[in-house]
User: What shape does this take?
Amino acid sequence: FFSSSFRRRSTRGASLLVKMSGKSRRWCDETVVSSSREPMHAPLHCWETAAQALGSPLTLRPPTSRWVMRLTPAEWAFSLVEHVHEAPRLPDGAARARGFDAADWSAIRVPCSWETAGFGRPIYTNTVYPFPVDPPNVPAEGNAVGTYQTSFSLPGAWAGRRTLLRFDGVDGAVTVWLNGREVGYSQDGKLPFEFDVTDACAAGEAGRHTLSVQVVRFSDASYLEDQDQWWLSGIHRDVVVYSKPRAAAIADFYATTSLVEGGGGDGGSGGGDGGS
Assistant: This one.
């Protein structure tokens, strides 16, 4: 994350890095908003049966499923530093698979913006940015970094299937590792995003997997997500691991509507509130 001095633009699954002040700072590269992230899609739930899916309102949280493991709400290990260069680094060698050394870290309830849990401070801005304006750059000094860590075990029934990791919302530029292996990077603070962690889980220690997440508070995306708001940071929505069949599974869906001849029910010339 912070170790390389070279820019590499490569295929899916590799890091995208930028040489800036001798540091790897993809969080200041407006051409990089993600790495190894699954394509965005309409919200999907893992229902056990078609009857459950058809009989439940979409506004309700779906019932427990054997193909879904919720990693939140729960307490995770947490570290917060004030500057980017102070951020924890993963160890080298075999110890990397165990993630960060979190023995002296605090605990934080996830999901929760870290400022509301007593770490750092929230900032309210209306028309002034909370950092010097120099797009796409944001400073490393005074740019807090929060690092999270937790662990989980997968059910035996998931063997031979795809395993996906979903974050429903993280404010900041986030890098994710599983068993010390980077599985992806993402921005877009209010959108769910997913990574395919099938291979990372298969390569991990038998029975237990270590999930590590590092969030840089300000990034080039902050220039678009600013104005008339409270600046809050970190994992502020749920985190889920779920399983899908390898052979075939629904990845997305959409609806296409058409105009009705003679106009819609609003008496006008269009088709009401229909879209495409």
Observations:
- Helices lie at 50-55, 198-203.
